[in-house]
Design a protein that fits this description.
This protein has 292 residues and is α/β, with parallel strands linked by helices. The protein has 11 helices and 8 strands.
Amino acid sequence: MKELQFNMSDIGFGANRLGIMHGWVTIQDQNPELASKINYIPHRLYPENHYAWNKKFYNTVHAASVSVYEKNLETFAQGMTPILVGGDHSLALGSVKASMKAHEGEDIGLVWIDAHGDLNTFEITESGNIHGMPVAGLIGINDEHYNNLGNDLRMKPENVAFIATRDVDYEEDILMHKLGILNYTDTLLRATSIDAAIEAITNKFRGKVSKLHISFDFDSCNPEVIKGVTTAVPGGLTREQPFEIMKKLSERFEIVAIDIVEYNPLTDIDGETLNLLDEMTTKLQSLVKVPV
């Protein structure tokens, strides 16, 4: 097994909502043992153009994502597998870019477990919140400064797959179809099975990728069970299904990195989201193997 390294940024400006930035202090206070496993990545506020409604907190979010990129690259250089704990999903631009750089010359696949598409661009966004844009940046359809965060590598759209989506904007849906991105929705998942979803991803990636970066957003789960999120959407995965999905993917692909993002202690009124995060930090070790 490869050793895991948990790197955490609790920036929430990409979501433009309260609560996310209390993640680190909440973990320290309520679960010191979990906090001891995590490398905290500090961040700060930068001057912003607040008239740019479609790029809210652009400079601050960009800088935080660069910090995640650098920390994950450092983790790869040390021979460990980086696990990003967030913080809002904008940070995944940095974490996935690090995976692409660490495996430069190889195509890696991206499995995005999320209620949302996160494929908005600065032109089509309805909210201006950058946590809804990282996939667009990864495939290179946002502005150059954002697309080239860390490096100018691009994720091939056909190597991207979504699972458990149920709140995808109209323009995002058009882009998914146009770009050939697999979108295994929550509705489809309920009508079939996780095994069927894994088979669809395997067929999509067959002959193209053997390594995966998995990006998991807590809001992919049913908010009646996992409440500690910022943008809750009815429906979604059970408490057990995210790890089940990851485990089944690890049986088909080499997992190079994982994100666990959008933990919001302000809405985690029963502590169950933090409990799930704690459980996952232990369970994930079994997914990451040393390549033969």
